[in-house]
Amino acid sequence: KMAADTSVDILQKVLENEILQSAKVVEEHLDAEIQKLDQMDEDELECLKQRRLEALKKSQQQKQEWLSKGHGEYREIPSERDFFQEVKESKNVVCHFYRDTTFRCQIMDKHLTVLAKKHIETKFLKLNAEKSPFLCERLRIKVIPTLALIKDGKTQDYVVGFTDLGNTDDFTTETLEWRLGCADVINYSGNLMEPPFQSQKKYGTSFTKLDKKTIRGKIYDSDSDDD
Q1: CATH number of 74-183
Q2: Which tens digit of pLDDT belongs to each residue from 24-35?
């Protein structure tokens, strides 16, 4: 028991020391910042203030512009024609091709609703695949759900079914966010090298692209039939 107590004491001392060291680093950084500000004259301070105000104003204007173009919410668009107009307006677009009868589309909807509010730099849309045969043909959409990831009017990448999301219906919103970050279609602040999968060892980090040979005879397969 004494040995255990000793090791706990040692651990506690190590932790206390680490906390002290961290606090010291933060303190030194703050001191340096304060010193820098102290050495500035009024003109320089005013200039700094103006630059920060300008940056803030610019980011507010950008935000307003995005919101005016329908960013910030996950919306359904009625037709293929609307798709082309929406894509033309925005730099980054995520479009969910769905079908009413496919359960997994509802799972995708839930996560996209959250991400649309969080990433207003990107437009999040959904389009009924059965009402858009031309687009499904043109974009080679064979599995439902599929997300088309569009940058500058061009489809750069696809999230086909749940393969890239850990092959599970229980994937987290963070996992989908990471996958969209990998395609550079949202501003992702996490580590792209570490997918937040439930079991990294099992799924690894490689993306599985859709293999045409696995597609059955229908126009497109419901991913939920593939269990």
Answers
A1: 3.40.30.10
A2: 888 888 888 887
